[in-house]
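Hi L., both proteins are below.
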Amino acid sequence: WRRSAASPAAARGRVSSEPSREAERSALVRSLWWVAAAMTVHEAEEWNIAEWQQRNFVDHTGIPNEAIWLGLVVITALYLLWILLATRLRSPIAIAAVALPAVALVAVGNSVQHITWTFLFAEYAPGVLTAALLVIPTSVVAMWRMVEVDRRFAIPLLACAALWVAASAQIVSAGRMLQPFQHQLQAVVMS
């Protein structure tokens, strides 16, 4: 922990071993693209979720596989666009603020849903393997990078954790009924 008078970081009062803002930004951006890649593989694992939902939910709408596949492609494209827009920003704080919902609510929230379904129905739920092995680990790294950028990001991340618990409780209480948002998604895809 030495200060080097010759380094720009030392001139700003930063310790020379502390990562620069650009290094922080690069690490955050890389972690977000890993989450995006994990989400892409995760959505591909859901290729047969329509049949699984027909077996496990009494109020399934009968949406065909082709409509599910189209929906998965659209969801993946929108997610990638979200991450692209976030990572184009210069400020690591702005990147973290824009990407936090994509990671903490969408990626982890969706993963929690698949894991909860697996326990609830005591069978493989399409998407659970990539959720547990790819999405959650890469999301944890990205969320850690957000907190490294600014510790205040821990507050909304803790709020998201409370939402994960509430969402799991809602899924369990719904049992074999689809969530309202799932009906809405299926209606959009079918139209």
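That was the first. Here is the second:
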Amino acid sequence: IFYQGEELSRLLLQAVGPSSLPEGVDRVDDDGGLKAFVERLSASLRRALPGEDFELESIELRWTHQDNPRGDRPHVDGVYLTARLALKGPGTVVYEITRGALTVRPSPAGAMVVITNSDREMLTKVPGTVHSAPAGRFADRVILLVRYRSRRLGLLDSFSDAALTKRVERREDWVIEQLKKRAKTPAPEDLSA
């Protein structure tokens, strides 16, 4: 699920409200609107995924300054779902696998990507989203991660399922192999001259 442009702006505005409040009116939440944003995001995800039982696990802000971001190797995360919002700098790169073909979808700054993780794959059979941080060194990159866990798994998690772990590893390795092949393929010649 990608939220970007007007759709993301609308979600953010609904969550945090107008940027300036009338004189004498204080914010009810002391977190700058983060709580309201996460509540509206969670409600939006529940509407998009009816019948799936998940709850907020954690919220993390990752800031990469003058460095390579963590997670730049294609992988599938644990837990159930993760919403990844690129606040500054490039967003998450998603690798879509459709009928044996690979599509690389980098998300721009300001875009949100909601990815399926291995716990959701175990429960729903929806393949976990292979993704990575963008390659390269960035002056500043800020990502907000909102993670959700399944209420149905309890103490078990997807990494206790050996067959699922192997499937996920094979998918990750396949994406990496396809990316290596693309890097070796010469660019087509410009025949327009």
